[in-house]
Amino acid sequence: MRVKILILVGLLALVVGGFWFLFGRADVARLSVDAVSGAKPKITDARKQTIPTIRIAKAVGWQDDAKPVAAPGLFLTQFAGQLDHPRWLYELPNGDVLVAESNKPPTPPEGITDVVMGWLMNRAGAGVPSANRITLLRDTNADGVADIRSVFLKGLNSPFGMALVGDRLFIGNHDAVVSFPYVPGQTAITARPTEIVKLPGGGNHWSKNIVASEDGRLLYVAVGSASNIGERGMEAEDHRANILEVSIEAKTMRIFASGLRNPVGMAWEPTSKALWTAVNERDMLGSDLAPDYMTRVEFGGFYGWPHTYWGGYEDKRVEPRPDLLQYTKRPDYALGPHTASLGLTFGSLGGFQNGMFVGQHGSWNRVPVSGYKVVFVPFGANGYPNGPMRDVLTGFLDKDGEAQGRPVGVIVDKAGGLLVADDVGNRIWRVSAPR
Question: SS3 string of 6-58?
Answer without folding.
Answer: HHHHHHHHHHHHHHHHHCCCCCECCCCCHHHEECCCCCCCCCCCCCCCCECCC
